[in-house]
Design goal:
It is a single chain. The protein has six helices and nine strands, in the order αββααβαββββαβαβ. It has helices spanning 2-8, 28-31, 34-45, 62-73, 129-140, 159-165, and strands at 12-15, 23-26, 55-59, 77-83, 91-97, 102-108, 117-125, 144-153, 170-175. The strands form two sheets. It has a seven-stranded mixed beta sheet, sandwiched between helices. The chain has a two-stranded antiparallel sheet with strand order 1-2. α3 packs across α4 (62-73). Bound molecules: adenosine monophosphate.
């Protein structure tokens, strides 16, 4: 597919970063390419172009960059989901699975009203532990999670399948095999 090849060429791969065996998919090159950045944002939201979206939730930190652009594109508000201890007002918190152990993410308790339609955004989905935690957090405060959007899918790690099993439609623009 032309679009996928085009955008894929804008992603830089760094082998063995941050540790041996990991192929790090670096989207800073895509973000730095005006045409690729615009195209990625347009394509991410394409299925929801005509529907009403109240909020876009972005996962720290690369999800903030994409999520802000996506929110602007669909005329929605933006909500940050952050690592614990960073948000100043009252928060709700959710544990999520990391490769070794767990961590916690937070959002402001009043960031989203009950039944608001929300799109979740991050750069990449791997095992899906991070996105699963974010969906649970959003649902905990009553959000209607309409979709989760990622530029990159690592399908061998099963994250997108995990989200779909939670009844969350998943949109990704390209896939890479392996880790
Ligand atoms: P996961 O919770 O396993 O789905 O991991 C997703 C999070 O880890 C995302 O926020 C990604 O930015 C980051 N991540 C995981 N694997 C990679 C990779 N191979 N290259 C770049 N970022 C990654």
């Amino acid at each position: 597919m032309v679009l996928e090849d085009d955008l894929k060429a804008a992603v830089r791969t760094i082998p063995d970063y941050p540790k041996p065996g990991i192929m790090f998919r670096d989207i800073t090159t895509l973000l730095g390419d005006a045409r690729a950045f615009r195209r990625a944002v347009d394509q991410l939201v394409h299925p929801w172009a005509g529907s009403k979206i109240d909020k876009v939730a972005g996962i720290e930190a690369r999800g903030f960059i994409l999520g802000g652009a996506v929110a602007h594109q669909v005329s929605a508000g933006f909500v940050p989901i952050r690592k614990k201890g960073k948000l100043p007002h009252q928060t709700v918190r959710m544990a999520y699975a990391l490769e070794y152990g767990t961590d916690e993410m937070e959002m402001h308790v009043d960031a989203i009203a009950k039944d608001e339609r929300v799109i979740l955004v991050d750069d990449l989905i791997a095992t899906g532990g991070t996105a699963e935690g974010a969906v649970k957090l959003l649902r905990q405060i009553g959000a209607n999670v309409v979709a989760a959007c990622f530029i990159i899918d690592l399908p061998d790690l099963g994250g997108a399948a995990k989200l779909r099993a939670m009844d969350v439609p998943v949109r990704t623009l390209m896939a890479f095999g392996g880790h």
